[in-house]
Protein 1
Amino acid sequence: MNAADRRSAALRVLPLIDLTDLDENSSPLAVAALSAKAITPHGPTAGICIWPHFVETAKSLLHGTGVRIAAAVNFPDGGTDMDGVLADTEKAIADGADEIDLVLPHRDFVENGVIISRQMIKSVKKLCGPRVRLKVILDTGTLDNDALIESASEVALEEGADFIKTSTGKAEVNATPEAMRIILETIREFRRDAGIKLAGGISTLEDARHYLDIADEIMGEGWTTPETFRFGASGLLDDVLAALSGSAAAPSTGY
Ligand SMILES: O=C[C@H](O)COP(=O)(O)O
């Protein structure tokens, strides 16, 4: 991409980023720095994505800025501890979370079928109510099978997910164009108003633009807005800001 293309990609990508800090060593200080970084001279990111116990800190800093606060629950393992997931969700919402990123209990989904997964998504959605958006993280690299990705997407959409998110960023395989295609085709077929969040290992504008091209191809141009499309990324904003300030490109991971 030349400098003009990078700049135009950066302007498109910036409002779609959920700037993420889900490091196990995250801290209130780190969340404060993340919150400050989310408000750039070129406009805000869509949101920040953090651990539930830091929502209160972020809320006090971001209140009124338009930057949404997403809390990751059942993260990153995707276990079946329903009570723990509901308690974390309830607390995050009470502290001011605008969005919940819930990891599907994917091992149980693969081994035992849909019952626990449906129950968990339905119960978390009930806590979210009409105000708080629910993103369901499939962990597509672990599901590792097209039919499973498709059926997990269907289950999430049927139980009220507002977004399907590919990955935690902690698995060996995270977002991929192949998984994205399956999810988007399912969304197109079942619930065009639902969104997709690509997450894990996306750190260059080149990669981000490749995902946007696929979204344009499958859903049509104009579909990708912050209401339907996000990049969950800890590093992508750096390349966006470099492009907007005219610096050189970061090396692409090569999609
Ligand atoms: O939920 C988002 C991911 O954890 C971000 O992954 P990343 O650090 O590879 O960008």
Protein 2
Amino acid sequence: MTKGTQADVNPDLKKERLKCNFNIQEVTFIIDGGKDKTLQRKKIEDVALNIAASIDEVPEECLNLKERYDNAVRKSCVYSNIVKNELLEITGLEALGSPGLRRTADAFFKDVSPFMLHLGMFVPTIIGQCTPEQQAHWLPKALEMQIIGAYAQTELGHGTFIRGLETTATYDPATEEFVLHSPTLTSTKWWAGGLGNTANHCIVVAQLYTKGQCHGTHPFIVPIRDLDTHEPFPGVKVGDVGIRMGFNTADNGFLRFNQYRIPRENMMMKNAKVMKDGTYVKVARHEKLTYGTMVFVRVTLVMEAAFNLAKAATIAVRYSAVRRQSQPKPGEPEPQILDYPTQQHKLFICIATAHALQLTGLWLWRTFEAVLADMRKGDTDSLPELHALSSCLKAVSTSDSAALIEQCRFACGGHGYMLSSNLPLLYSFVTATRTYEGDYTVLLLQTARFLVKAWEQAESGKVLTPTVAYLACAAAKEKVVWSDSVDGMIRSFQAVAAGKIAACAENIKRLTKTGTSLEDAWQLSTVRLVAASEAHCRAMICQAYWHEVTRLTASCSASVKIVMEQLATLYLVYWALETTGDLLRYSTICESELNKLQLKYEELLALIRPNAVGLVDAFDFRDEILHSTLGAYDGRVYERLMEEALKSPLNETSVQSSFHKYIRPLAKGKL
Ligand SMILES: CCCCCCCC/C=C\CCCCCCCCCCCCCC(=O)SCCNC(=O)CCNC(=O)[C@H](O)C(C)(C)COP(=O)(O)OP(=O)(O)OC[C@H]1O[C@@H](n2cnc3c(N)ncnc32)[C@H](O)[C@@H]1OP(=O)(O)O
Ligand SMILES: Cc1cc2nc3c(=O)[nH]c(=O)nc-3n(C[C@H](O)[C@H](O)[C@H](O)COP(=O)(O)OP(=O)(O)OC[C@H]3O[C@@H](n4cnc5c(N)ncnc54)[C@H](O)[C@@H]3O)c2cc1C
């Protein structure tokens, strides 16, 4: 954070910081995943942010579309050099996935870098889908930025249904080449970040044909532009998809092929190969390993959701400590809006959710690494569980994060609507994460497939994998006894999930017994399947969050343990109150217990109140990363709003030319 001198800090924020009764740094270490991670992040920030501080002369949002893109490319090149020459020096290749790198990128770009997909998907796909020889060829070029790549899977006609993609890659043994072709308008690749004008290479997912047979979708590395002139190669038509709600500097593009040839070796051959004579050889032990990059990105998106929500919460809580409004008690000064319980209700769940998602995300990352280690030994047994886990966690975390960022904007009143608050841009960025890398509903339905199967296994007394082990107890189908202890609440959330999964399984069984096909019975049950999957995910987040808080605070100071537990309890109680209908159905909770729960929630808000600013300070965002007039460390909200307003091009002259061209002629009846 940029602390400046204490004298510059808004007096209300100063007082808030004096009230804080826990060690902020200890909480920062927990959120970052350990003291070493915090120190590494800060080192990276120190290097990168010195340069970022003076990177923009004019605010990004004041530039026109083309200028914004050019400016984003300029900054991406500066940033790439820092990554290559400085950050990789500090931490080696590990820097690429480090929170420090992710955070510092935000100091350079308010919107999105056109290189994001290069680092976010092109490089990971090379690592995950190429043979060691192919990696040795492509990876150094990509890391040195000698080539810039995009990931083009989605088409104009299909995003979700990958098996329905239309682009073809047909092997020609005579020349040992693949011929890429886009047979229809709807087969045009669409949406790939960095593709429109920036990338010279692209990972293309296409239907592989060899010896007259289709073997389904496979990834290929495709050069699309000349490295010197940057002109698209003959047979390649590429461009920008048009103006979007956000991501306008991300250069999302379209791509069409007309019988375009690439060497056989450009097929990414870790999981399947085509031999010189055209023989197709399957290498992978699991059908869906070609979907590996998507699983990887879904896993990372859970922490991405936490990160962005933490930024919004920091902005809104600091602003709410500075902002004073209304007069609930006659004759008394206007209170800080943070003192209103309704404001606390809007904001403390944002802090708690950021913690919940960050700690669950770190746990998911460790699970992902364990599954990868198993797969390196040839064991793919845990892949279905990882797919189910990452699908629902990606769906719920991105959806919650987007909704709560919007809530933070509402919590900032009119000033939250200013682009300079950074809340609108944060929202438009995060709401896209609910759609990309697998739409919310679609991914919850993927998890539901796993849950229904697990339910059937539970009913037949089979041993269940860890994340669904709770179904074994629930197979007895009795209402769970409600208790407002943490364990009691988690048990109840699991009972709700189990009850909903059981109801889905029963409904499918009932329908199929009466002659409905299994596919139709599934479709007729999808509304409840999505709800069951979400309930399962919520129970899992509650369990993982509480488990991680207990584990990570075991050796912390007492005050940190208390505040972390208060937040985690708030998260559980909040969701119990949000889902009272479900609890009434699947647990023994009654009216008086619901009243008790509401009181407990209100008590927690009051307990957290004095630590609210300390808790957001613990996210440790430097001002350069927050980019917010409302959320800066010093709380000089009104001064910053005025300073930013004066940067608007509309304030460059006191009279606009449109006055002379239109308004005056209109007033004089001469238009
Ligand atoms: C040095 C360089 C410096 C540069 C500096 C630059 C600065 C950069 C700045 C910052 C860097 C930060 C980077 C970090 C951020 C990362 C951001 C990334 C941004 C990403 C943008 C978006 C990209 C995309 O959107 S790509 C496209 C994604 N598309 C999708 O997700 C499509 C969704 N659809 C599907 O996944 C599938 O089609 C499906 C799962 C819905 C259905 O597939 P299917 O039809 O084939 O399967 P079935 O439904 O029939 O199921 C069959 C069976 O398979 C199981 N299954 C399905 N999927 C999987 C899987 N993935 N793994 C395992 N198993 C799977 C399924 O469960 C079924 O099993 P059953 O047992 O039930 O039969
Ligand atoms: C900002 C942004 C960046 C992107 N970047 C990339 C990129 O770099 N590379 C890339 O390849 N792609 C990218 N995408 C595309 C993205 O992955 C897809 O948009 C996403 O996977 C959703 O697919 P779709 O657009 O086909 O939606 P659709 O599948 O058409 O969804 C439309 C609606 O239909 C519903 N629906 C679809 N199928 C089902 C089903 N089986 N059951 C129930 N409901 C269903 C959905 O829930 C949704 O409500 C990006 C998208 C965005 C918005």
Protein 3
Amino acid sequence: MAAASSFSAAFYSGIPLIDLSAPDAKQLIVKACEELGFFKVVKHGVPMELISSLESESTKFFSLPLSEKQRAGPPSPFGYGNKQIGRNGDVGWVEYLLLNTHLESNSDGFLSMFGQDPQKLRSAVNDYISAVRNMAGEILELMAEGLKIQQRNVFSKLVMDEQSDSVFRVNHYPPCPDLQALKGTNMIGFGEHTDPQIISVLRSNNTSGFQISLADGNWISVPPDHSSFFINVGDSLQVMTNGRFKSVKHRVLTNSSKSRVSMIYFGGPPLSEKIAPLASLMQGEERSLYKEFTWFEYKRSAYNSRLADNRLVPFERIAAS
Ligand SMILES: C=C1C[C@]23C[C@@]1(O)CC[C@H]2[C@@]12CC[C@H](O)[C@@](C)(C(=O)O1)[C@H]2[C@@H]3C(=O)O
Ligand SMILES: O=C(O)CCC(=O)C(=O)O
Ligand SMILES: [Fe+2]
């Protein structure tokens, strides 16, 4: 397993904090998406019981013997995975469940293998996804309003659509025993990458490890907060805003003594949806930085890439000289 090249950075105190109920939320969200592509959300309205219930059902699942968990894998692309991320050679100190948000679409009836009480995990996942999807929709509407786009559902309709190709993931990072031996070096739990979709909504327990990369290339550690959500701008939203919003590069480093459990909703558009910079956001002579593509085309290309690759390069327009 790879070690991160630097010591884990000190906690960063500059993460934008958005109170979803505040009147200035939309302007602050736009600023955060332009500067970092990342922010923390409080007063989000998602009941803590839903969050705790999913966390405890997931913890029960990950405590099962490996042989039982493996009955729900390997992820192809959905299912239980251990250390291998994607199918192109990436590895991390992590085990996970990767699910289609339309639970009935998950292959091979693997949902029925969800531990001792499959129904409980299944309904915890369903309730959680539906609450978080609504919150993502609300945030995407605030983004459109903050950008002064007339059609306030221009982004939200993509993830709220019945055909939306959204994904849900629960990651478990066990404490990393090799850490002591390596004295102060952190192993990679989940290697650096950007998320391909429109928006990612992350919630974790109180274990540190999540880092984002700033524009200057420095990595900063995000203080964990189990009662808040963290929002990542994904590649597709960067394209729709013609680069105005930044798809944030992030990674997870392991912890030597505590396990980390995170749950991430990746809000993606329907497969047939055409993704391109919105004409209404182009100012004056501004040129489109990206070629139009369907989400299906982007996804196919993304799933053939390595985690750390810049997946937008093949879709960039060459600037005219
Ligand atoms: C290495 C890979 C894993 C990934 C598919 C990919 O080929 C490149 C993008 C990766 C990523 C990152 C964000 C999400 O965790 C994810 C589910 C996604 O949509 O894109 C993963 C993919 C995965 O784990 O299958
Ligand atoms: O587990 C985490 O905290 C983040 C993982 C992540 O970035 C991902 O699954 O795409
Ligand atoms: Fe990610």
Protein 4
Amino acid sequence: MSVSREVALAEIADIRLPDGRTLAEADIVRALSVDGGTIRFVIEAADAAAASSLSQVEAEAQRRLEALPGIERVQIVVTAPAARPAAAGAAPSLKIGRHATGQAGPQPIPGVRSIVAIGSGKGGVGKSTLTSNLAVALARAGRRVGLLDADIYGPSQPRMMGVSDRPASPDGKRIEPLHAHGVTIMSIGLMLKEGEAVVWRGPMLMGALQQLLQQVNWGELDVLLIDLPPGTGDVQLSLCQKAAVTGAIIVSTPQDVALLDARRAIDMFNKLKAPVLGLIENMSSYICPNCGHEAHLFGHGGVAAEAMDLGLPFLGEIPLQLEVRLAGDSGRPVALGEGEIAQAYARLAARLIEQGVA
Ligand SMILES: Nc1ncnc2c1ncn2[C@@H]1O[C@H](COP(=O)(O)OP(=O)(O)OP(=O)(O)O)[C@@H](O)[C@H]1O
């Protein structure tokens, strides 16, 4: 009999990283799956330098896991996001991160027809990647699209959409968003010094979010996509209290553990009275770029089954493909291209347009 996922995780939990933390403490193992005699997982390093220092960790994990009974093969992929481009240009005089001002319930954003939050239960499932590609696919389908990066703990849209200028605020009151690939963009990451927001607590987060929703000149939009931080915290709560959210989309990978967290996120949106518009499965299958063989590294179909169980729409699936990550790291989302993956994002966009939310 093959070992369980938990046993595999426990076996590598105490391997030390160069910075002295253990793998478990650093929480950088993603999507570990045991498939017969094969264990596969991703180590997500903070940046390229950290990734290149992990070869001994990788070798040790490989050695330990291969020694487990019944395990014949261990496949480890180390990934790292590219460095975020440095912000340039004149800083707006606007002070971001003040306390929230009084507001009577969730408000619409003038000119914005629909507000769609993109959430996930767990970090690292590809929510930001999905959001940038969906935004591009919707823009290609002729929609007027805005993208608000509210992932306060790891704003990645500037990198993924290839923007780095600091947004201007000529009058010190309104913020001018940026534009890339046909999408109007604003990210909390463009307004802050690196690392600044992570110390914020509820009221500051609420104030910053309120500013991004209400003080940015979004213009006329068919849909504003909001890239949320993972989990069920203050930002999600503030968003649903401050903005008239049309609905939420939940992104998950197919494994049970991600799905469990996704269920919590769905629960939260239900409690906050933001209708869940549907579920998307990311990293659904792996198509070998050389031979075209399709493999299901993290399982397949778990999210569709979960959607069925919960009576929610299943909106579609995006395969695990190196080009998705490379395109995201280069600031040109893969949905700009013509291949199969771009078509998968185009189908998702079409679904949302069909549902009348984009
Ligand atoms: N379909 C995919 N194929 C290949 N790589 C992917 C895919 N989706 C996401 N990735 C990669 O996985 C990593 C995590 O993705 P991303 O940052 O979008 O996740 P997230 O859920 O937004 O994470 P966070 O918890 O930091 O908000 C990135 O390196 C991204 O390029």
